[in-house]
Amino acid sequence: MRRIYLIFLCLPFLLSSQQPEDIEKKSSLTGQWRTYYMVTANTGSLTDFTALATGGYLKYTLQPGKRWTFGAALYNSTQIGGMDPALVDPITGRPSRYELGLFDGLNPKKDAVFILGEAYVSYALPKHRFQLGRMKLNSPLINPQDGRMIPTLAQGFWYTYEPGSEMKFQLGLLNQIAPRSTGEFFGIGESIGTYPAGRSVTGAPNGYPGQTASDFVLFFNAQLKLTQKLNINIWDYMIENVSNSLYVNPRFALSPTLELEGEWLHQNRLAEGGNAQDSLRYFNQNSSDILGFRIGYQGKGSRISLAYERILPHGQFLSPREWGREGLFSFQKRERSEGTADNHALVFYYRTRIPIKRDLVEIQSIFSLGRHWKPSVLDAEANKYAVPDYTHLNLDFFVHFDKLRNLRPEVLFTAKFANGEFPYNPNFYLNKVDMFHLSLVLNYNF
Q: For residues 56 and 11, what is the distance between their CA atoms, to the nearest angstrom?
């Protein structure tokens, strides 16, 4: 397996040296070599986890004419150090949460994972674009969530229509998804539950993994500039036989530097919610709603924002974690609001750029501080993953070198602290609160 990995790394250099000039004009070979180190320090005698992986992807695209494009990308992750990914904490019996995501979460004993993550054909007209096959998609609820070695990938059809600069419409139909940190594509229902499933509303382990019946996801997106100051972004996700999620995000420019945003996510159950049997059902509620507000200030080289998010009490926000990070105002790396009802969150972000050594090096820093008020860890109906109240601190640094433009290092530091009082149970702490996490990522793009 490691020999295959070496061939994978050498392939771009071999192919680039053999391409004649007439082929180079119509085709391209791009990729990324990524080396990723993680460490999580848990409280007390709970296990600390480490992981080290390397790999990346190679992507080849061919354009035989102005309208047609063919593309394919091979993704890889190989373990080169750290702890055994299959190791579990002896107190809770649970594995690592973040480190396992660098490898195959469904088969931790694999030392290398390969997947043909992209294989598509697209056809473009001046205002229309059609794409069919395996591809990367970026939307609020289904996206690459590219914070590990292998991103989330999708298979299906995608159509984009741009009649002008002030509007854009998208329509998609997916029949398979390859969840991040896996080595294969799954049917839509089969993919739901490949990540830990948490508790059912009765407090028993959820029974929906492998039991969710759904054949496709249907998308619609409209991005509209209604006035010079008002824009609106609308997404609708229909998961056949499971649920429908409508996301509305208006943005209003109060001034050239000040912007006000809102968001509303409404979800409702469709048909059986995934299964006719309550104990095996994924969407086991009638509906849920999220309301959010954010104000942002854009200065010279920096941006400050403050957001408030409220998940209303009548239902959990449910979106398959296997399909992407949640594109909500309250999102912070290394935690989510999914699986929660009756939740409040207040999150501050500060982004800036710091030039060093006469602009030869620039550091982009992102600081976020969030206070998240969760329902009781004992309330399984409102707190699917038994996450306590917590305060969340993130420091994220991206380094840009003027003379090494392809090199993109990243450093992420995370700390999460429990708030309030709740019954002691190590399962409420492991990989959730009173913990520190460090990610060191070295990306080389070519």
A: 12
